[in-house]
Amino acid sequence: MNISDPVSDLLARLRNALSARHEKADVPSSRFKVELARILKDEGYIKNFKVMDDRGGSLLRLYLKYDDAGNPVIHGLTRSSKPGRRLYAGKDELPEVLGGLGVAIVSTSQGLLSGNDAKKRGVGGEVVCTVW
Prior knowledge:
132 residues, Ribosomal Protein S8, Chain: A, domain 1, Dna Ligase, domain 1, 2 domains, 5-stranded antiparallel sheet, 3-stranded antiparallel sheet, 3 helices, 32% strand
């Protein structure tokens, strides 16, 4: 299956798995998606991730995280930059999500970074998505 926007597909699958209270979510893998999963893990939004070889290609398995009451740790995911409307931000214009409670994920010249890491390094780039 050919997907026109792989990042939106990943976010939609993650959103659907969380609303259905699944333990894990599988998505087709790419280096970009693996880096996105690494940031989600580092920021504490998912338990872990693993790249698995499948018959047709590789799969990225995301292990979802819930609190003690069974509510998902991720309350919201939004795609900021879309194929039809790219959203770029300079180092001083990076968005702050919910007053610092969430994280913006930014594609920079130094790779995929969280908004806080991009501010520390003094780089801007394409705001891929926001998570809270």
